[in-house]
Specification:
The chain has 190 residues and is of the alpha+beta class. The chain is built from six helices and eight strands, in the order αααααβββββαβββ.
């Protein structure tokens, strides 16, 4: 379906389609990581399986993400307080998920078309995270800019700039690239 969507539009070449697939896969894995379904090491390993990264890419950029509303659960806060989240075991992650079970988190992600400035390529993603707990809704928003460089005749991710906006939806509502509104073509929910 993914391939036929882009082929049918006739606006993407194969390399753009591949870059969009990489970004979508990273977004899906990032949301699993943010909700304690993947350890940091497993997350980074899986991301490297689905995307190509430039030699100088900083892996720390992958772990900048939103987190569920831990403040609603003091027990969950105590589980992660003063701990390096990268060192949590699968058992500890499962324990945190069980503590957070009463919460329902839905994520809507949008991914832009590929922008090309003649040197680099860029893809933007924005996410709306809706957490529901005891009839209350909590919102978090984020925006990411993926920068691709041509390295070894392949487009590779050089940079992922993530901005976390909390409840401030206006920051992701009207985003622009070169003073033009960004065109978001792909939308999916998790």
């Amino acid at each position: 379906m993914f391939s036929s969507f882009f082929t049918g539009c006739g606006i993407f070449d194969n390399s753009s389609e591949e870059l969009l697939r990489e970004v979508k896969a990273i977004e899906e894995l990032s949301n699993k990581y943010a909700n304690f379904y993947l350890s940091t090491d497993t997350y980074i390993e899986k991301v490297k399986e689905v995307a190509k990264f430039a030699d100088e890419f900083n892996e720390a950029e992958l772990i900048i993400t939103y987190r569920p509303k831990l403040e609603l659960f003091p027990d969950a806060i105590n589980m992660v307080k003063r701990k390096n989240l990268a060192l949590l075991t699968e058992e500890q992650l499962k324990e945190i998920r069980n503590t957070l079970k009463p919460v329902k988190t839905e994520i809507e992600v949008q991914i832009s078309k590929v922008y090309d400035d003649g040197k680099n390529k860029y893809i933007f993603s924005k996410g709306k995270v809706v957490t529901t707990y005891k009839g209350h809704f909590y919102y978090d928003y984020y925006l990411r800019k993926y920068t691709f460089i041509n390295e070894g005749n392949e487009w590779k991710i050089m940079d992922i700039n993530t901005q976390l906006y909390g409840r401030n939806y206006k920051q992701v509502e009207n985003v622009t690239y070169r003073n033009e509104p960004i065109e978001f073509l792909i939308k999916f929910n998790q």
